[in-house]
Amino acid sequence: MGKRGLLLAVSSLPGRYGIGDFSYETFEFIRILKRHKIDVWQILPLNPIGYGHSPYQPFSSYAFDELYISIEDLRKRGLVSHINRVKAKARTNFELARQIKEKAIYIAFENFKKNQQNMAKLRKFIDGNPYIREYAEFLSLKELNHGISWNEWKVSKEDKLDEFNYLVEKHCFAQMILLEEWNKIRKYANKNGIEIVGDVPFYVGYDSSDVYFHRESFLLDENFKPTKIAGVPPDYFSKDGQRWGNPIWNWEFLYQNEFKTMMDRIVYASSIYDIVRLDHFRAFDSYWQINPSCKTAVDGEWKYPDGYAFFRKLYEKYPNTNLIVEDLGELRPEVLVLRDAFNLPGMRELEFTIGDDELSDKHLEVENMIYYTSTHDNETLLQWTTQLDKKTKAELLKRMNELGLKGRNITEKLVSYALMRKEKLVVIAVQDLLCMDKRHRMNEPGIVNKTNWTFKLIDFKKLNKALNQFF
């Protein structure tokens, strides 16, 4: 039997200020994992969230979202005094959390910068983290331009130099604190035998410091508008495909520069996580590029980069990089050949594979894979089972009973089934462990609504009860 893990975003923890963050509840969650002998905690990207609250459209590949800063920690450092908590609710309130955290960071920085030793420490941090400085400059300019996209900025740093310099230092201060807080969390997790899996999106958002400071790495025209954008073509799930809108990597430039812009993102993620999950791995073999004028993903074409060259260079320079890859969906065989050439663990998902011959002993042969009950983009297990036709559901339940799986209903039995599998790692989404319905789904791809990315625990009571049942 391999390792066992839970999938839960940091933002979904029962935080005290409208969002899960790097405070007490995170350490309590780690203690819960240890108590139930869970080996892995998989999270979603911690980067500054962008459009629609999505962590997959970040303003930077390197910075933390300031939403995660711990007011509890700022208070212990003597940088803030009392700040009223918010009543715990089962939804993340990004706007309220942002308002509270921005105020706390402002107060903390005003107190921090009174000490010259503090400022010397901050300047050393800034000098040693050029990507963080880029993000701070980008965000500061964005604020001076009232939040509009960088390609429409009118105000330069020279126009408001003093204010710009202040904002840069304030944002770098927040990033320094966030990194220190996260390092404590990761160290605590590792000390308790728990590895953290972090996510790296394949693409970056257009309105990001990545694109603003490294425009040559992306396909942009003379006005810095994307000439092609990312997505996936029409398929069984969507007749129009998915139009994501991210700029396409300039692979010709990447080849010439040893993939530095793309590689640095993975190397950075490897410095803050124990295992890095590469989202949309298939794009290293083949990706769909769309004309920006097309309102859907129909008008596009496949492109085929040299993924072998990228991974050879990555492992040549960073041989200890620990990766798993998201290889779900309809793929051409070459994607899996690329994956296996570098011995990269892929993914299997119960909802997509349970209807095959998976319930035979054949699954016992599968080892270099990560098995999921569901992911952040899928229906919860309970939602999925309620949509099965009566015959399929009856046959599935019959097989579950023949295997002697414990559980009061088919959802619980499927969780038990996942936990008996032999992959190197089995990851259970917390919503599946708690038998939650569609209201608790983390994300429904391709749309922007009020509930995407807002799933949140009120406390750990139900989670502890469910863990006692299965672990």
Brief digest:
This protein is of the alpha/beta class and 471 residues long. The protein is built from 17 helices and twelve strands.
Strand content: 5-15%
Shape-level CATH architecture: Alpha-Beta Barrel
Strand order across the biggest sheet? Answer: 9-6-3-2-1-12-11-10
> What percent of the residues sit in helical stretches (DSSP H or I)?
25-40%
Rg to the nearest angstrom? 23 Å
How many H/I helices? 17
Shape: globular
Are there runs of 5+ residues with pLDDT below 50, and where? none
Q: Structural class, from secondary structure content?
A: alpha/beta
For the largest beta-sheet, the strand count, sense and barrel status come to: 8 strands, parallel
Order of helices and strands: EHEHHHHHEHEEHHEEEHEHEHEHHHEHH
CATH class: Alpha Beta
End-to-end distance, in Å? Answer: 14 Å
Total domains, how many? Answer: 1
CATH topology: TIM Barrel
Spell out the CATH superfamily.
Glycosidases
Number of strands: 12
| Average pLDDT level | 94
Question: If you had to describe this structure to a student in words, what would you say it looks like?
Answer:
- With 471 residues, the protein is an alpha/beta fold.
- It has one domain (3-470): Alpha-Beta Barrel (TIM Barrel), CATH 3.20.20.
- It is built from 17 helices and 12 strands.
- It has an 8-stranded parallel β-sheet. Strands 5-4-7-8 form a 4-stranded antiparallel β-sheet, with no helix packed on it.
- The longest helix is centred in the middle third of the chain and has 31 residues, at 161-191.
- The protein is globular, with a radius of gyration of 23 Å.
